[in-house]
Design goal:
By secondary structure, the chain is of the alpha/beta class. The protein has 13 helices and 17 strands. Helix 2 crosses helix 3 and helix 5 (168-181) packs parallel to helix 6 (208-220). Bound molecules: zinc ion. Zinc ion binds next to loops.
Length: 425
C-alpha cells in the first residue's frame, strides 16, 4: 500500500518541488529506476541537487513518468454534452467552454499535450488562446487550423474543417493560410477517409506535385506536415515526398520497404486504432453498414501494420482519434493487445509523441532541461497499462512544473457533467 501523503502534497504544490522516493520511468525506454529524485526548478527538470529549503514531495514509491502526449485528436468533435430534444439550443459562444472542459478533463488524466488534427471552425484555436491568457489550465495544444485537402467528398462532408485546394500553387497558399491562422503544423489529406461513405480511400487524392509543393512550403517555414494516409497509393506519395507523420497508414504492412524508408528518414507512424474500433463496434455513432464492414477489416490491417512497423524500426506515437479525450490512454491497451510491449507503448505516448510534434527538446522525457510535464501514478502501467485510464490512479499531474491535477488535489467534479435542469420559478 502507498502511504497517505495527500496533506504533504497539497501543502507543497505552490512552490518548486523536489520529488523523492519515485519509481521513475523516464520516457526514453530505459528500465524503471527505483528510489529516484526529480528536482523541478522554474517549470523545468533540473540536474542540480536540491537545496535545503526545497519542498519535498515523497511519492511513496509511486510510478513517475512524463505527461502523456496524444498526437492525434479532434478536441472540438468531443461529446461534451448530450443534445436532447427540447433542450435550449446551444448559444454560439458555448462551444469553446465545452471544448475547454474536454481539455481540462484530459489534463486531469495526465494528458499534458495534445495535437489537434482537425476541427470545424476556429474553436480549438480560440480555446488555445483562452488557455494562453490564463482562462483555464489545460494540456498544451498544437493545432493545424483547417485540414488541407483536394476538392473531395470529404470537403463536402466536413465543411469548415477542410480547406480544399487544387494544384501546387493553391496547396502552397492553403498551407500559408493555416500558418496565418496560427497553426503549429499543417495536415494534408493524401487519401479519402474511412469515415466518409462517398470516399474510396484507395487512390491518392492529391498529385505528387501538389503534396511536394505543400511539404516544401511548410518545411521551408520551419513547420511539420502530418499526412492522412489510408490507401497505399497516397501513402507512397506522402513518404516519398517527406511528410513527418503518417496518420493511420493501415496497409503499410504490405510494403515493408516503405516502412524501412519511413524509419530511415525519421518519419513517425500514428496508428489510431481506437477510431477503427469505434466504427467496427458502432461506438459513439450509428455508422453505415459499409463503413462498419470496412472498419472491421481495417482493425486487422492496422494490427498487421503495427507489428510490421515495429519490425522495421519505425517510431510509433500514440494517437487516440476517438472520444472522450480523457480516455486517450486506452489507445495504449489496443497497441499492447496488437503486439507492442507495454514499455514501448509508454515510449509511444511520451518521447516518440514529443518527436512527432517536433517538441522532443522540450517534453516527452524526464531529463534535466525538459519541461516538468509529469504524472504520478498509483500502480504500474508496465504491468497493467489500463491504470492510465482510471481517474483514481492518477495521483498528481504536473504541467510545466506546477501540480495542477490528480487525486491528491483535484476535485472529483471534473468528471461529473452538470445536468441542465429546469429551475422552478
Ligand atoms: Zn483523425
Amino acid at each position: 500500500m502507498y502511504p497517505s501523503r495527500i496533506m504533504t502534497v497539497a501543502s507543497s504544490f505552490t512552490g518548486a518541488p523536489v520529488l523523492v522516493n519515485a519509481r521513475l520511468f523516464d520516457g526514453t525506454g530505459a528500465p524503471v529506476k527505483d528510489d529516484a529524485t526529480v528536482l523541478i526548478r522554474d517549470g523545468y527538470i533540473s540536474g542540480e541537487s536540491a537545496s535545503l529549503n526545497a519542498r519535498v514531495i515523497d511519492l511513496g514509491r509511486r510510478f513517475l513518468m512524463p505527461g502523456l502526449i496524444d498526437a492525434h485528436t479532434h478536441l472540438a468533435e468531443q461529446p461534451a454534452i448530450e443534445i436532447v430534444e427540447g433542450m435550449e439550443p446551444l448559444r454560439p459562444g458555448v462551444k469553446g467552454h465545452l471544448v475547454a472542459a474536454v481539455a481540462q478533463r484530459a489534463l486531469r488524466m495526465g494528458i499534458t499535450t495534445v495535437r489537434d488534427v482537425g476541427a470545424r471552425g476556429d474553436t480549438v484555436l480560440e480555446v488555445r488562446q483562452a488557455m494562453r491568457h490564463g482562462a483555464f489550465i489545460g494540456p498544451r495544444i498544437l493545432a493545424c487550423g483547417r485540414i488541407v485537402s483536394a476538392t473531395s467528398p470529404g470537403g463536402h462532408h466536413f465543411e469548415d474543417m477542410y480547406r480544399e485546394a487544387d494544384g501546387p500553387d493553391e496547396m502552397r497558399k492553403a498551407a500559408r493560410e493555416q500558418l496565418r491562422r496560427g497553426a503549429d503544423f499543417v495536415k494534408i489529406m493524401m487519401t479519402g477517409a474511412r469515415s466518409v461513405e462517398l470516399e474510396n480511400p484507395g487512390p491518392a487524392q492529391v498529385t505528387r506535385e501538389e503534396v511536394a509543393a505543400l511539404v516544401d512550403e511548410v518545411h521551408r517555414q520551419g513547420y511539420r506536415v502530418a499526412a492522412h494516409c489510408e490507401g497505399l497509393e497516397g501513402t507512397v506519395l506522402a513518404i516519398e515526398e517527406g511528410v513527418d507523420t503518417i496518420e493511420h497508414g493501415f496497409y503499410l504492412h504490405e510494403r515493408p520497404d516503405l516502412l524501412r524508408q519511413l524509419a530511415a528518414q525519421g518519419g513517425i507512424l500514428i496508428p489510431t486504432l481506437s477510431f477503427l474500433v469505434d466504427v467496427a463496434e458502432q461506438r459513439h455513432a450509428n455508422w453505415s453498414e459499409h463503413l462498419v464492414e470496412r472498419g472491421v477489416y481495417n482493425i486487422e490491417q492496422a494490427g498487421k501494420t503495427l507489428r510490421a512497423a515495429i519490425e522495421a524500426g519505425v517510431p510509433i506515437a500514440m494517437g487516440f482519434d476517438s472520444k472522450p479525450e480523457e480516455k486517450a490512454a486506452s489507445e495504449l491497451k489496443l497497441m499492447v493487445d496488437a503486439g507492442m510491449s507495454p514499455k514501448d507503448a509508454l515510449v509511444a505516448a511520451t518521447s516518440t509523441g514529443a518527436k512527432s510534434l517536433g517538441l522532443h527538446n522540450l517534453i516527452g522525457t524526464v531529463e534535466p532541461g525538459k519541461l516538468a510535464d509529469l504524472i504520478v501514478v498509483d500502480g504500474d502501467p508496465l504491468k497493467d497499462i489500463r491504470v492510465l485510464v482510471d481517474p483514481d490512479r492518477i495521483h498528481l499531474v504536473f504541467r510545466s512544473g506546477t501540480a495542477v491535477a490528480g487525486t491528491a488535489i483535484a476535485p472529483a467534479f471534473l468528471f461529473k457533467r452538470l445536468c441542465i435542469k429546469h429551475i422552478p420559478p
